[in-house]
Amino acid sequence: MLTERNAGMKKILLLLILIFLTSCSARVNETELKGISVFNKDENLIDDFIPEGNVYIHELSQENYSRAAIICDTGLTVLFSSDNYIGSDSTVYATAGQTKFENIEGIYLTNDYQSITNAYFHMIEYLGNEEKVMAVLLDGFSYNQFKMAVKEGSIPFLSKYFKYPALSVYTPVTNAGFAAIITGETPNVNGVHDRSVREMRVKSIFAYCLENNKNSILLEGDIKVLNTEIEPELHIDNNKNGETDDEVYESALKAVNENYDLVFIHFHGIDDRGHSFGPYSDETMEYIKAIDQYIETLGKVWDGAIIIAPDHGMHETDEGGGHGICVQSDIIVPYFIKEP
After folding, report:
1. CB 288 within 8 A of CB 141
2. Which fold has domain 118-338?
3. Cα distance between residue 116 and residue 121, in whole Å
4. For a disulfide at 188, which of 6, 45, 76, 149, Cβ 3.0-4.6 Å?
5. Segments making up each domain of the chain, as ranges
6. DSSP-assigned letters across all residues of 138-165
7. Among 302, 304, 310, 300, which Cα is nearest to 336's?
8. What is the pLDDT of residues 253-264, one digit of tens each?
């Protein structure tokens, strides 16, 4: 009897070990994708798609999507009809096969395509109409985190001014996302593909301000992320609490009361906590609530437009959180506009 019980316990133990190893393997494999990621705004539909023959894009989902954004490893994003197809060589063929796109990282299925590059053109629009703009980059804030925070009722300001889910760029890291937001161009054009690049090949919103007699300020953390046409105002951790967002916030409170047409603010704390604790941890979600309060307070004394755009999202890892791959959690972010 005891022997049978021990044997049963061993089987249960082996099953638990197998489940654990399988889950760990799934997380590791997420960063080692060999095929194409297929996703919509809410979830990954196919994690690692390798076609065995020609497959029409609209066949990749049971839902009807009219558009597909093809994301290439060069940083190019191309939007076209979902009636085009993928060949067995993982190449997307468009316009009846006359045009092809190779080295595909992801396919975003949508009926309402929006991009973080919109931020540049919205800033231009408001500034061109003699409106002031406060632009806020929320580093590492995913659409998934936004939905979770809305469900918890913890971000009343951000939820009020949510506009739509938006596609970030490949590679979904800070340098590339930041460059896309301030230039309106994807990495294949602006030249910023990853963390190693700081020089942009095109002009940014700060050049527009200089050329049109608009006063602008860039409030950054403790590191200069990109070489822009104006020097960022960097911040050190004066109160030794392990971050610089509170110092950036204090500078922003002063800047919104000064003679600036564009105040650009980069908050890093969501990304920092996501890496350390995980994107959906209590620590990260509580900080998202704090950021909402920061922006609400700034908005009360700012009489211009407010544009809020994250640079990228984040997926869970065994160590906490990470980003840089073409999956829904990393590359779909929330986009916000408060009209002046």
Report:
1. yes
2. Alkaline Phosphatase, subunit A (3.40.720)
3. 10
4. 76
5. 36-110, 118-338
6. ETT--HHHHHHHHHHT--HHHHHTEEEE
7. 310
8. 999 999 999 999
